[in-house]
Amino acid sequence: MRERLRDHGWHRGLHGLSGRANDCPRAKRRLATDRCLQAFFLGAHLTMILTPIPSDRLDAVLKCFVDELRDWPRAAAAFARIAATWPVAPGSVDTPAQRADAVALAHAFGIATLDQEPAVAFSWDGQSIRTRSEASVIVHEVAHWLLCAPERRPLPDFGLGAGPETGLKEIANAALQVSGAEREAEEVLTSLLGILWEAELGQPAILACLEQNWLEGAHRASTVMFFADAIDQLYQAGLIGDDGRPIPPVLKAEAA
């Protein structure tokens, strides 16, 4: 997937976190999340999957991760839906039907699209998503739109700086409005929300989950807590339901 996560080399380096610094579960989760967020954005221009998981081990890793989320039922339900997209059938990645479904999702939220390459201008030009891209990237841009503050939606690439597919990078970077921890936090949530929408659309969400390193250090308690905290933030933002599934456009419109 060619989005900002790759451009900036963001990753989850959950180094040295045992989760034993505080006996309070909420404090443990907060501590793990804060440290993971710091490590998440270290380094630059790294390969996306830091520690590839052999395909013959992935079933066991996924089951173990779901089991470790047992104290967070909403997060466990959300991850189970992502895990259910494995295995991925040959020829079922970035198909024309998946791209059409991604474009339809954008339209359902009232987001305009342009059938153009992002390289001619921007991935998001302040009005439209350019959709000659991978299905997962289109869904990711929809997630950006959902998480972005309304006042930044008119800005190219949501005021987050140029994405790697954007052609007019200098202009997009000049429109940067959010940096540091705020941008980092938004990118983390955008990553996960996009993955959840891929699962909802029946697309191979597990691939983006792996590529964006949500399972890096899957055996560590801190990784589990990082995922659970991100799910909780999406729930508090009204973007997913108590079942861990993303809120459909119709229900969001009714809530508004």
Write the layout of secondary structure elements.
Blueprint: H1 4-7, H2 25-40, H3 55-68, H4 73-83, H5 96-108, E1 112-114, E2 128-130, H6 135-147, H7 169-174, H8 180-200, H9 205-211, H10 221-236, H11 249-255
Parallel strand pairs: 1-2
Helix pairs in contact: 2-10, 3-4, 4-8, 4-10, 5-6, 6-8, 8-9, 8-10
Helices and strands: which structural class?
A: mainly alpha
Approximately how much beta-strand content do the residues carry? under 5%
Q: What is the number of helices?
A: 11
- CA radius of gyration is 17 Å
Mean pLDDT: 84
**Element order, helices and strands?**
HHHHHEEHHHHHH
What coarse outline follows from CA principal-axis ratios? globular
Largest sheet: 2 strands, parallel
Strand order in the sheet with the most strands: 1-2
Low-pLDDT windows of residues: 1-47
Report the end-to-end length measured between terminal Cα atoms: 32 Å
Tell me what the structure shows.
The chain is an all-alpha fold. It has a domain of 125 residues. The chain is 50% helix and 2% strand. It is built from eleven helices and two strands; from the N terminus they run H-H-H-H-H-E-E-H-H-H-H-H-H. Strands 1-2 form a two-stranded parallel sheet. 42% of the residues are buried.
In brief:
With 256 residues, this protein is mainly alpha-helical.
Which key phrases capture this entry?
256 residues; mainly alpha; 11 helices; 2 strands
